[in-house]
Description:
This protein is an alpha+beta fold. The strands form 3 sheets. Strands 1, 2, 3 and 4 form a 4-stranded antiparallel β-sheet that branches. Strands 8-9-10-11 form a 4-stranded mixed β-sheet, with helices on both faces.
Amino acid sequence: MNNKAGSFLWNLRQFSTLVPTSRTMRLYPLGLCKTKIVHSNWNILNNFHNRMRSTDIFRYLFQDAFILKSDVGFQTRGISTVTALRIDRLLYAKRLFFDSKHSLVSVDKFNGELKKVNLHHEVSSEDVLTKETKPNRISSRKLSEECNSLSDVLDAFTKAPTFPSSNYFTAMWTIAKRLTDDQKRFEKRLMFSHPAFNQLCEHMMREAKIMQYKYLLFSLYSIVKLGIPQNTLLVQTLLRVTQERINEYDEICLSVLSSVLEVMEPCKNVHVLQMGFRILVDQQVWKIEDVFTLQVVMKCIGKDAPIALKRKLEMKALRELDRFSLLNSQRMFEVLAAMNHRSLILLNECSKVVLDNIHGCPSKIIINILQSCKDLQYYNLDLFNGLADYVAATFDVWKLKKVLFILILFENLGFRHVGLMDLFMKRIVEDPESLNMKNILSILHTYSSLNHVYKCQNKEQFLQVMASALTGYLHSVSSENLLDAVYSFCLMNYFPLAPFNQLLQKDVISELLTSDDMKKNVHKLHILDTCLKLDDTVCLKDIALSLPQLPRELPPSHPNAKVAEVLSSLLGGEGYFSKDVHLPHSYHIDFEIRMDTNRNQVLPFSDVDTASATDIQRVAVLCVSRSAYCLGSSHPRGFLAMKMRHLNAMGFHVILVNNWEMDKLEMEDAITFLKTKIYSVEALPVAAVNLQST
């Protein structure tokens, strides 16, 4: 080590003879080679050995190495002008030192080769190390405009590589975005096999620590989007350098870093970078000025981010609310869904802006808003009605696929817009040829779930068209898709023969009972079996299905105690009603009351055993939640409507009690409410007298 240090100091003294001792040399960072003006101050080099170890001197001097030509210097009023011939850092990951013959020795760390450059020889114009001017830097935009393929960019790099290498990756990604999927696959194969690709990757890794931070982030984003595997040395190196230099951020870097994290798959280095990003955002959130950057950061922060950080970002967004553009308001739904944070204030304010500017709103924006509302469980009836009204008003210009997707999202939200669904039914009846198997399943599920065909004018025509369209695909439909379609028809109380006959074949039933979703299939088959036995419109009543026993429908975990108390006060005690009654076909009802056929008088259960079944009216009281109805209405959804139909077929009079309404009522109001539900109109005065006597 001492020999190496001594040799280096000797070389340093020899090197110092190249520059006048009364002048100083200033080392410039990596850039284009040109004549530099340097002020006199040689004390830096004279004091190096006092302030640093020899290894530190070595690292400092040759961080950006320059070769000085002593014969081109001149003096003007204490200023020395020297031609600084920089050694390009792309030769670059090499160790440099001077030998005893004043030659610059380059040790290549990758292949171990030694290369010498004599400092005193006459330099030709082709010598890269001694060019006084380097090739002009070319921007990624210019590269993407001049090149037509990824290979063209790599060819340009081969001819005249320039700093930074990130421009080449950014240009390649810009070009790739213009290509079709097939063209992208072909171009990527050519890119990976191009002889200059590995060299470009090596240059990128060597330059990562010295290029501007934003270029580093641009290149990392482009590399990932180009499909370079994330577990490669290139990507992992860039990730580590990005972590190390994260404090060099500016607002643009925050936006780009957010996009980088959004497209990367989880791994250890990505996780570390994500944690660093959250700390950085937590510290700098109040300094973010651009609303778009704020939204990009919020979208990237992650669903598992600390709630304190989410609230801080929410407060920042609320402070910037007056600066929101229409696009910012539209994007806010997707941003909040991405961070899994339901801010009602932000959502309500952005909903107003969206509705005020609904005309001309693209279908993609509407779909993103509805999907985000579903993810956030945000139910804004005014927003849904406004969006549906706009789609219905401009229905003729919408494609069938787009409208269907919007209807599916409305169904997920439990929202039923009568006008829009009627228009869609009309188009299906007029153009049944536009239906494919996927559309058929989606339409049947949506309309059966929302119970829309109930009492519709063109119900029969619509159901016939759907059954005919399904029949055309029976030769290719899978067993599970066929079961889903038939189940939807059962909810709508419609039983087309061809689909039912194919589903009820033994081999199809056997396949459904041995599939991975056996529990779901068994549940649907039991409902089918119940419909075959109870519904009047079925023509296949003689068929008996042999199915595994279905577990009983579980009663609610918190039975409605208030309803039980009201019934006890209204009817005169618990002996006049029964709780948690299990019925055939795996049905369950919350309360059962037995009355005379005119529903004038309640009968105690002790007297019912001796009475004739024809003299008794059984009353089923169902306590239902909001989700059993379509949003903002009292229209029952598909399963509840079918259950009511089947209970009627079993001889019950069905009464629906809304849990959320009962919870709001005082005891006297609740008794009055149930009295009007249980007793017939003619019996209400009598019931009132009996209630007063009790």
